[in-house]
Specification:
- The complex is a heterotrimer of chains A (about 300), B (about 325) and C (about 425).
- Helices cover about 75% and strands about 5% of the residues of chain A.
- Chain A has about 300 residues and is an all-alpha fold.
- In chain A, α4 packs across α7 and α11 runs antiparallel to α12.
- In chain A, about 50% of the residues are buried.
- With about 325 residues, chain B is mostly helical.
- In chain B, α3 crosses α14, α4 packs across α8 and α11 packs antiparallel against α14.
- Chain B is flat, with a radius of gyration of 25 Å.
- By secondary structure, chain C is of the alpha/beta class.
- Chain C has 17 helices and 11 strands.
- In chain C, a hairpin with a 2-residue loop joins β4 and β5.
- Classes of the chains: A mainly alpha (about 300), B mainly alpha (about 325), C alpha/beta (about 425).
- At the A-B interface, α1, α3, α4, α5 and α7 of A face α1, α4, α5, α6 and α7 of B.
Chain lengths: ~300, ~325, ~425
């Protein structure tokens, strides 16, 4: 380092200046609050009674014997897997369809995107009407001769409903990103493969998919992070039920903090949540070399 | 879900059209006559195309209906809104709710609050993220990787996790019931991280030749950034802008926690305030206000989407 | 509290930002803050009261009372501000303010949170102030209305709103089904839960809509069933809150009745089916009388008291309280303002929206002014007699957790072939540790 020339040092200085706002911002608004959360997690903090007592690792030990947490983790796994898989599959399908230069594409694109700008609460309330036992969805199914389940009252269908409502709300954004990526795939490659006799599916798998894999990585990261912020949806649709079947970790954390006033324990859960996301993201990032076509 | 339909793309694709023609515009972009396929094949393709359009129409139902319901319900009386099986069109449409949107609250002021906050946050985020993304992608300064990882931490923190400590910080700075926390924290804190990440990916994918040419022409690092890199990143900045604007426009938990007087409220918070004397929501007024917040954004998207998608397609986001 | 004290709090906050004092140095409670005749502060203070109403006419009324107080006590207060927090997020935002060291001076409190707030020490004892305020007429307050908000001798919040639960009936639908009018049954003494169920089932069958709706229950907020099981004199836990009583015969009977009314008689909407009485979707509904404002003229309706159960008639009221936070900056001034805000004269004004816990104001005439949709006879029958000796919905100092746990357990009850006794046994097993907390 000491050997760096003055020009290089000047370049460093520009670099530091450019990243300074976001680095300082992260320190003040991410790292400091996280540190405070870790500190809170070592305490029993009852906001109402105004007590703040150091209890060491007690909140962490409590996790081991908390049956609610196990359920919440399980629900989180199902929710996140369901959300990511359905969201990405649907986003890709829509993008591919919209990339066919069909009539009315602009209109359809607007349709699929429109829920993104709709207020989350209004969106969820409409769906809670539609998902009633005798609501619009089952009415539609009965026209087709099928009998729909009581969506929000069975553990499995309630989870499916929460995932689906969330997917319809946000898939438009991912669809746009995929659509942009698809339009960046050179026509010549497709054409060459077609001349070589490759079928549609083959071309999609061997050319399109690898070329848009960086976008898939980005989209899946965005989606997983988004899956951690499902609060209003679950609150309006199921309230975490039936039983605890849709009480995902964030909802559980929110309950502990704001409904039960267990800020210490909630902070410990927040630390756990943070670590889980950290590990997941690192794994995803590490694995990108295996499946992302060219390192970005 | 319907992944079995996925291999369907190719049949509808007309010959080698000009690259990057936006999909909405291609109805008349007929393939050159030299490559025109035989008539039978064309008919089959035509049929497939219409089947695909039908599929799109069916798929759009669950996307369009709730929005449609929201907009039309703002014209309905309360009792009709709460029908178990929703009505498609109001039996007796009335604009009364729209008048009440403005008389019950300083709605225009609240609209302005949301708008100016979202615009400031969007511009601020674009600038901060472009600079940081560029530096992390292009400049090799000591500790760059460590700092990037530090920033990425923000991507992993749901807002519910840090709301209490952030409130303490904001409170101790005396900034409760001001718009500062809604502007500064998103621009510099966790919400900006995704933007930084997108910009870095973009600059990594951008060929360096142009910048090198710029340097040879005597531009410094700042000059290269401002005059060459930034203009080239318009499309990625567009993506960042849309993400950021929507996020700020729809922000809910934070305004509720930070703001306390009606003149300072933002739209999502204001929407919850249309309630009757006993806390029951006035659905028609609430939905009228919601419609007013949604339609302009939708209109802007409708007008700008062509440029937006096309821009993104040329950007580094494709890889 | 003195200005000096405030400055100390500020300093502590700044230190926290600097990262040196992540500890909550400002946490020392003010529970034993002296309350009585407020000490005149060195300069007039600003008071802040959080409420969940966003109704302009209500807020204007509050403000006019507050402005009169400011005018009378310029040396004490310079302003009183009412801060609306949305209903759904009220407790979240209030808790965040408390956790953030920014406690309001006064706050509305949900009844289900009452024991938690009352027993926490977060609120100051109002009894000395209210009793000591000249012309307050503390004895005019209905004792049963105060129970929920008391701890020992202390009164930690004032129940400004006491809205009885009653049964609204859609007489158009009931008549069309050829069923007896509940108003007549009340007169004959035949107004029982069984009668209500039978009318509801028959009316629902005829109208193709729903029968009896326990409003806001929705198979989630089970505490609203108190309006039903109180007729069996059942309760979820013992009065002292230590014993689970879900398995008591009275509760088992009440829940069995409810379950069968839903799944056997189809007298009530099944889970996953919502029906809004006020939209004409149901024959009758149990809710607070204040909801009368939601009625329009689209159908003929009437209002009757809650039916009698096997154990007789039991009135139920829904309450809301207002308390003074010890952690606020001026608890003594805030308590003095509360005494003014709820004195006999102002309580009469507030009665326009919130039935007050005052004997002298609980008559059909005073209340009719407040509830234009109801006649003074209806109000006399339902409100005046409804507040006397009324019980409140279940409450407990651990209510938030209990509410969530019971909700999850009772989900097993809301299926057709549920074993009521077994589910309630499971419920007690899950609830007991929380009662002992």
């Amino acid at each position: 380092m000491a050997t760096a020339s003055a020009a290089v040092r000047r370049d460093w200085l520009v670099g530091y200046t450019m990243v300074a706002p976001v680095v300082l911002g992260s320190l003040a608004f991410v790292v400091l609050p996280l540190g405070m959360v870790v500190w809170y997690s070592l305490h029993e903090w009852n906001v109402l009674a105004n007590t703040f007592t150091f209890v060491g690792a007690e909140n962490y030990q409590r996790m081991a014997s908390d049956p609610g947490l196990g359920d919440a983790l399980l629900a989180t796994v199902w929710f996140s897997i369901g959300l990511v898989v359905v969201n990405i599959a649907l986003a890709l399908l829509l993008a591919v369809l919209l990339n066919q230069k069909l009539p009315g594409t602009t209109t359809f694109r607007t349709f699929f995107f429109s829920p993104v700008v709709v207020s989350l609460v209004a969106w969820t309330i409409v769906w809670s009407f539609l998902l009633q036992a005798d609501g619009g969805i089952n009415g539609f199914l009965s026209v087709l001769g099928a009998e729909g389940p009581n969506w929000l009252r069975h553990p499995t269908t309630a989870m499916i409903a929460v995932v689906i409502v969330q997917v319809f709300k946000n898939v438009g954004l991912n669809m746009i990103l995929f659509l942009a990526a698809l339009q960046g795939v050179p026509e010549e490659l497709q054409e060459a493969a077609r001349l070589d006799g490759a079928g549609a599916w083959r071309r999609f798998r061997s050319i399109t998919l690898p070329l848009i894999s960086p976008t898939i990585l980005l989209v899946s990261i965005i989606t997983i992070v988004g899956s951690l912020e499902v609060f209003a949806q679950i609150d309006v649709l199921t309230g975490g039920g039936p039983g605890n079947s849709t009480t995902v970790l964030v909802y559980y954390l929110y309950q502990q903090a704001f409904r039960f006033n267990e800020f210490g324990y909630a902070s410990a859960l927040a630390v756990l949540l943070f670590l889980i996301v950290l590990v997941l993201t690192l794994l995803q990032w590490q694995s990108r070399k295996r499946w992302v076509f060219h390192e970005v | 879900m319907k992944s079995d339909v996925m291999p369907a793309p190719a049949p509808g694709r007309p010959g080698p059209s000009a690259p990057a023609v936006p999909p909405g515009d291609t109805r008349d972009a007929a393939p050159g006559p030299a490559r025109r396929p035989p008539l039978g094949v064309r008919a089959r393709r035509g049929l497939t195309r219409w089947l695909l359009v039908l599929l799109l129409a069916v798929l759009s139902l669950p996307f369009v209906f709730p929005t449609w319901w929201m907009a039309t319900s703002s014209l309905k009386p309360m009792s009709e809104i709460l029908r178990r099986v929703p009505t498609i069109w109001p039996q007796d449409p009335s604009l009364e709710a729209y008048g009440r949107v403005f008389t019950l609250q300083p709605f225009a002021q609240q609209y302005w609050n949301s708008l100016y906050i979202a615009v400031l946050v969007t511009l601020g985020t674009m600038l901060v993220a472009a600079m940081a993304g560029y530096a992390f992608a292009r400049i090799r300064f000591p500790g760059a990787n460590a700092l990037f990882v530090l920033v990425l931490v923000g991507l992993l923190v749901p807002s519910e996790v840090t709301i209490v400590p952030l409130f303490r910080i904001v409170n101790s700075l005396g900034l409760i019931n001001t718009h500062w926390p809604l502007i500064v924290i998103p621009v510099l804190g966790a919400p900006a991280v995704l933007a930084v990440f997108i910009m870095r990916q973009f600059f990594l994918g951008l060929p360096t030749e142009l910048e090198e040419a710029g340097r040879i022409d005597g531009l410094g690092r700042w000059g290269v950034f401002w005059r060459i890199a930034l203009p080239l990143s318009r499309s990625a900045l567009g993506a960042v802008a849309i993400f950021t604007f929507l996020k700020s426009w729809n922000l809910y938990l934070e305004p509720i926690v930070y703001l306390s007087s009606k003149e300072n409220f933002t739209l999502p918070q204001a929407l919850t305030q249309y309630v009757d004397a006993y806390g029951g929501p006035m659905w028609n007024v609430q939905l009228a206000a919601t419609t007013l917040t949604v339609l302009p954004v939708l209109a802007v998207f409708l007008l700008a989407q062509k440029q937006f998608v096309q821009g993104l397609a040329h950007s580094g986001l494709k890889g | 509290m003195s200005v000096h004290h405030i400055r100390n709090r500020r300093t502590a906050g700044t230190a926290a930002v600097l990262g040196t004092a992540l500890a909550l140095s400002a946490c020392a409670g003010g529970t034993d803050a002296p309350v009585g005749e407020p000490e005149t502060p060195s300069e007039p203070v600003d008071l802040r009261m959080t409420v969940w109403t966003a109704d302009e006419t209500q807020l204007d009324l509050f403000q006019s009372i507050a402005d009169a107080y400011v005018a009378e006590n310029p040396e004490l207060v310079s302003s009183v501000k009412f801060e609306t927090i949305p209903f759904e997020d009220y407790t979240t935002a209030l808790t965040t303010q408390l956790a953030g060291g920014n406690a309001p001076d006064l706050a509305w409190i949900f009844e289900s949170n009452a024991p938690e707030f009352v027993s926490s020490g977060a609120l100051v004892d109002l009894r000395p102030v209210l009793e000591g305020t000249e012309g307050y007429a503390f004895d005019d307050l209905v004792p049963s209305a105060l129970t929920l908000w008391e701890d020992g001798d202390g009164l930690y919040a004032y129940p400004f709103s006491n809205s009885p639960f009653a049964m609204f009936v859609n007489t158009d639908q009931i008549e069309a089904a050829g069923q007896p009018n509940p108003v007549d049954l009340v007169a004959d003494g035949g107004w029982t839960f069984d009668a209500a169920r039978d009318i509801a089932a028959a009316t629902a069958e005829k109208s193709g809509k729903q029968g009896l709706v326990v409003r806001d229950f929705d198979y989630q907020s089970w505490e609203n069933l108190a309006t039903v099981w109180s007729g069996w004199k059942a309760a979820p836990w013992s009065a002292d809150g230590t014993q689970c009583t879900f398995t008591d015969p009275a509760m088992v009977d009440a829940m069995t009745w409810f379950h069968d009314a839903v799944f056997t008689d189809a007298a009530m909407p099944a889970p996953g089916t919502t029906a809004d009485f006020f939209a004409g979707d149901a024959a009758m509904t149990i809710t607070q009388i204040s909801r009368a404002s939601a009625l329009d003229d689209s159908f003929q309706w009437d209002i009757v008291p809650l039916p009698e159960g096997p154990a007789g008639k039991q009135n139920v009221v829904g309450q809301a309280g207002v308390g003074v936070f010890a952690a606020g900056e001026h608890p003594d001034v805030a308590a003095d303002f509360l005494a003014y805000f709820t004195n006999a004269e102002n309580a009469e004004q507030l009665a326009a929206y919130f039935p007050p816990p005052r004997q002298s104001l609980l008559n059909g005439e005073s209340l009719a002014a407040a509830n234009p949709k109801l006649t003074s006879e209806q109000l006399e029958a339902v409100v005046v007699q409804g507040v006397e000796d009324a019980v409140t919905k279940p409450a407990h100092k651990n209510f938030a957790k209990l509410s969530e746990t019971v909700r999850a357990e009772l989900d097993a009850l809301w299926v057709e072939d549920a074993d009521v006794e077994a589910v309630l046994t499971d419920t007690c097993a899950a609830v007991t540790p929380l009662l002992e907390d």
